[in-house]
Design brief:
This protein has 2 helices and 4 strands, in the order αββββα. The protein is an alpha+beta fold and 82 residues long. The chain has a domain of 52 residues. A hairpin with a 5-residue loop joins strand 1 and strand 2.
Length: 82
Amino acid sequence: MLLRADRVLLCLLVGLAFDAMAQPQPQKSATDLPCDAFTRDSEGEWVAKRDIMVPGPSGMVQLKAGMPVDDDLQERLDAQCK
């Protein structure tokens, strides 16, 4: 039979285990861009390496492989993909 202190300790450990499992995991933001989908051209501008959908001002926009990205996306890639 467990002593009272043992039961309290067991409850505490079980509670900590459940708390650790319930912690939210870091997730990519919806605005994060896949850096591996872009490269810089000879002039240092970001260009799509493959066809990709990216968030734009009015919804998702498809970029085709080889397309340069707009100024807003250039800045976001500069900040995120160092």
